[in-house]
Amino acid sequence: MLKFTHIRQKPPQKLTTKRQLLIACSPLRTHANLSTIIRTAGCCGVREVMATGHVRLIERIARDGATHVTLTVKSSLPPALRKLKRDGYTLVGLEQTTNSTPLSDYAFPAKTALIVGAEREGLSDACLELLDAVVEIPVWGMPFSHNVATATSMAIYEYCRQFPDG
Amino acid sequence: MLKFTHIRQKPPQKLTTKRQLLIACSPLRTHANLSTIIRTAGCCGVREVMATGHVRLIERIARDGATHVTLTVKSSLPPALRKLKRDGYTLVGLEQTTNSTPLSDYAFPAKTALIVGAEREGLSDACLELLDAVVEIPVWGMPFSHNVATATSMAIYEYCRQFPDG
User: Fold this and answer.
1) CA A101 and chain centroid, separation
2) What ipTM did this prediction achieve?
3) C-alpha distances in angstroms, A80 versus A76, A110, B149?
4) Tens-of-pLDDT digits for all 166 residues of chain A?
5) How far is residue A114 from each of residues A23, A33, A121, measured CA to CA in Å?
6) Rounded CA separation A62/A14 (Å)
7) Could you give the C-alpha distances from A75 to A133, B5, B42, B48, B101, in angstroms and in order?
8) Alpha-carbon A119 to chain mean position
9) Would you list the DSSP string of B39-93?
10) What angle do CA A136, A79, A108 make, to 5 degrees?
11) Of the N and C termini of chain B, which has fewer Cβ atoms inside 10 Å?
């Protein structure tokens, strides 16, 4: 008798309240990155991802996230962020900046909009000036910066660690 | 004066001891997945990734991880895992199994080999029976399972959260 055997189709965790985390993405160059973010969001019970720029999902990568996560496409992020702030979201950027907080030290408010930068440019100044907080993921070695989908997935994981029940 | 401004080329965190985390991968079908794992490993100061199967790195994805992380290629994982165990590593699988522990509840031993399953099949029984522990990442929604590189990155993040100094 093996101590560890596969559990296929294990039922997911239950949320006692709906996830209040929203992901808002700067224009991403690589469709694979947005698609990976959508898959992670779906797995984590995130209900909405906001995207900008030329948006196309790769379904092979996004999987059921493509149908279970609402993808909202905006022409520009700053007006959308102002609207989110009016709707009560705390705007948390994911970036290495002055005054940024290491990801695992940051106590996320339940109603968080995580604002993700583009692959090369990161977050624009127009976005940065709207943020309430910035979290950064520590790095210890080359290439000194995570892929944007990897970083976003780590941040979603950390949020869910803090809010296992929603 | 903006509160948050980009820090380019921010110096990485310092490790007081070398990272003792090692990643060992089942044969992965997708070169992008191994390459993503290598990039994350590099950023986190992980020094060795063990791979099996048909191994090829996509440098555009792996970035400097391709040169800064030692990639060891094995023809089969179980003999390599037995060797790691003899060398003092705790073998921790990343999988949904009976007796698996939620990732953030698991206190990693410093000297951990994280054993990663293949995209479709997960970990083989021959690997599972060698493991000391299995960690699983909770999911709350469809598609109910993370991409292997995403899951591995979350697990590396969690290990580093527990060992910020190495």
Assistant:
1) 16
2) 0.97
3) 7, 19, 31
4) 789 999 977 889 999 999 999 999 999 999 999 999 999 999 999 999 999 999 999 999 999 999 999 999 999 999 999 999 999 999 999 999 999 999 999 999 999 999 999 999 999 999 999 999 999 999 999 999 999 999 999 999 999 999 999 9
5) 5, 15, 17
6) 22
7) 23, 24, 35, 42, 42
8) 14
9) HHHHHTT--EEEEESS----HHHHTTHHHHSEEEEES-HHHHHHHHHHTT-EEEE
10) 35
11) N
Inter-chain CB proximity A164 and B138 less than 8 Å: yes
- The rounded distance, in Å, linking the Cα atoms of B134 and B96 is 8
Q: Give CA–CA dist B56/B123, Å, rounded.
A: 20
Contact status, residue B133 vs residue B101, Cβ threshold 8 Å:
yes
Q: From the list A2, A100, A140, which residue is nearest B13 (CB)?
A: A140
Where would I find the beta strands (DSSP E) of A47-118?
48-52, 70-74, 90-94, 101-102, 112-116
- Whole-prediction pTM value? 0.97
Neighbours of A34 (CB within 10 A): 29
Q: How many residues does chain B have?
A: 166
CA distance A81 to A122: 16
Q: B93–A4: do the CB atoms touch at under 8 Å?
A: yes
- Of A131, A135, A25, give the one whose Cα is nearest residue A69: A25
Backbone CA torsion sign across A66, A68, A69, A72: positive
Search chain A and give the residue with CA nearest B7.
Answer: A97
